[in-house]
Structure formats: C-alpha cells, structure tokens
Amino acid sequence: MALITTKEMFAKAINSDYAIGAFNVNNMEIIQGIVEAAQIEQAPLILQVSAGARKYAKPVYLIKLVEAAIADTGVDVALHLDHGEDFDICKKCVDDGFTSVMIDGSKHPFEENIRLTKEVVDYAHDHGVVVEAELGKLAGVEDNIKVDARSATFTDPDEAAEFVERTGVDSLAIAIGTSHGAYKFKGEPYLDFERLKKIHELIPDTPLVLHGASSVLKEFVDRCNQYGGEIPGAQGVPEEMIREAVKYGICKVNIDTDLRLAMTAEIRRVLAENPGEFDPRKYLGPGRDAITRMVQHKIRDMLNASGTK
Ligand code: G3H
Ligand code: 13P
Ligand code: ZN
C-alpha cells in the first residue's frame, strides 16, 4: 500500500476497455468516500487536488488525509495536482510528495505551452513524478461551439503529436467538447469522436485524459432540486459517451461535479427531513456514503474498471 504514480495503471489501461477515475478531493469525507469505493471495487485510483482545494483545506491536511486513507484501507493511490497553472505550484507538489502533476498551459500559445510543460517535465521526471499537460481549450459553460469554431478550441491532432514529442509529457488532456461544471451542453450533447480517434491514432502510446467528464446524474440533480436546491437545466456527458471515449485512448476520466452533486443532494435530503438535526456527523456521514455509492457506480458501470487493480 503506497502512493504510486500513474505509469503502471495507464500502461495497463491504454490498450484495454477501461479507464481510471480521477476524483477531486477537498476534505476528509470526500477522500474517505472515494477510497472506500476503490477498496470495495479493487480498482486503481487517482485522487486529485486543485489549487482551490489546496487553498480550502491546506496542502498538508490533504496529503496527510490521503496517507491516512492508504494506511487504513491498503488502497494504492496516485496523488495528482489538477490544473497546475505555473511551474511553482507543480514544483511545490512534487516536493510535497505528489506522484503526478498537471501543468495546464492550455491558455498559452503553443510554443509557450511547450516551453512551460517541458520545464515541469524536466523537474518532475528528475524526482520520479509523472506529468499531465493540456492542449486545446475546454468549452466554456456558455459556449455552444459552432462547427467552424471547433478547430480553434478543440485539440489539433497534429499539434498533439508534436507537443508530446517535444515535451516528453506522460499523458495529455485533450479538448473534444467537454467542459467543467454542471452545465456542459445547451442542446444535444456532442463530443468530437473523430478528432479523438485521430489523436489516438497519431499518439497511440500516450494516455489521453478527459476533463469535464461528469455525467451530472439526474438522480442527484433532482434530489438537490427536490430539497431546496436550484440547479435548473444542468446537463453532463452521457455515460455511454464516456464509455465510447474510453475505446479511443482515454485512460483518465476526471470527475468532480458528480461528487459535489452526490454529496450535496444527500446532505440536503437529510437536513430537510430532519430539521432538528445539527450534529455534522449526521449529515456528513450520509454525504460520504452517497459518494461511495456514486464512485462505485462510476468505477463499475462507466469506467469498467472494477477488479482491474
Ligand atoms: O477542474 C476543476 C475542478 O472541478 C476543480 O474545481 O478549482 O473549484 O477546486 P475547483
Ligand atoms: P467535472 O466538472 O465534469 O467534474 O470535471 C472535473 C475536472 O475536469 C477536474 O479537472
Ligand atoms: Zn479539469
């Protein structure tokens, strides 16, 4: 039982029909809920920490909590920095013992993204840490991207091949139509599978990463709304589309919004049904259990990763 890198898990996943769930963590209950699901399902696991999570919980708490979860359950975990925006935050996480970091240079021009990514790759590899980079821009919440605008934002397959070659990055996040958050599509969900296939053909040995991959499960949105929430018109990536993407090189599937919705829906329900309750354990506990059930469902039914450890 240990903190491990994603190298071995990706090597096994890349030419198979399953992917590894990468779940965002912000506190003890979220970490416990996810790790318990991975333990039950005997599945490989990536826990990821955003800059916002570091600010909220303080890095040392998150690292110690993840270490505690490993000691408690025996589950191997890859601990990953999500969307590192510059060299400094990546270096801090490498120095803190993360086994994987993401340098997100997607907002920069191509050459600057390459320079920045290479700088992080050199430092991380010297310390035995793997690196994820991003090329292309995820769609904005409000964007209903028109066909002719796609090439400007979605990942260009030829650039992806050049990027991987010149940076030596270990995995690549690509943009094919997903976006972060609970409002991913205004009309019919659309992912550019032809583009994904082309990228995978050109760089078949590079594990690809799908950000913004929450499905925004109706069950949890409805429960939030039923118990006082206001999340109208939320829409995620249908789970069958994730399963399809996994066939073409997607090895890592990023999920945060679905965790937030599952936990919030359950907490709302408990508090609404028990207005006299004010012991945080009485609602955080059920919130944690809801996360475990949801993550088990993801691992088993969507990522096809149950029992692959
Ligand atoms: O990519 C975004 C993740 O959902 C992290 O969100 O920056 O609010 O922690 P956050
Ligand atoms: P969701 O908002 O779809 O959960 O995406 C999370 C993510 O991509 C984290 O990097
Ligand atoms: Zn993301």
Structure overview:
By secondary structure, the protein is of the alpha/beta class. It has 13 helices and eight strands. It has an eight-stranded parallel β-barrel with strand order 1-2-3-4-5-6-7-8, surrounded by nine helices. β6 (171-174), α9 (193-202) and β7 (208-210) form a beta-alpha-beta unit. α2 (28-41) runs parallel beside α13 and α8 packs parallel to α9 (193-202). It starts with 6 loop residues before the first helix and ends in a 7-residue tail after the last helix. 1,3-dihydroxyacetonephosphate (13P) binds next to β3, β8 and α12.
Helix percentage range: 40-55%
DSSP, total strands: 8
Average residue pLDDT = 95
Largest sheet: 8 strands, parallel, barrel
Q: Rounded to an integer, what's the Rg over CA atoms?
A: 19 Å
Summarize the structure.
This protein has 309 residues and is of the alpha/beta class.
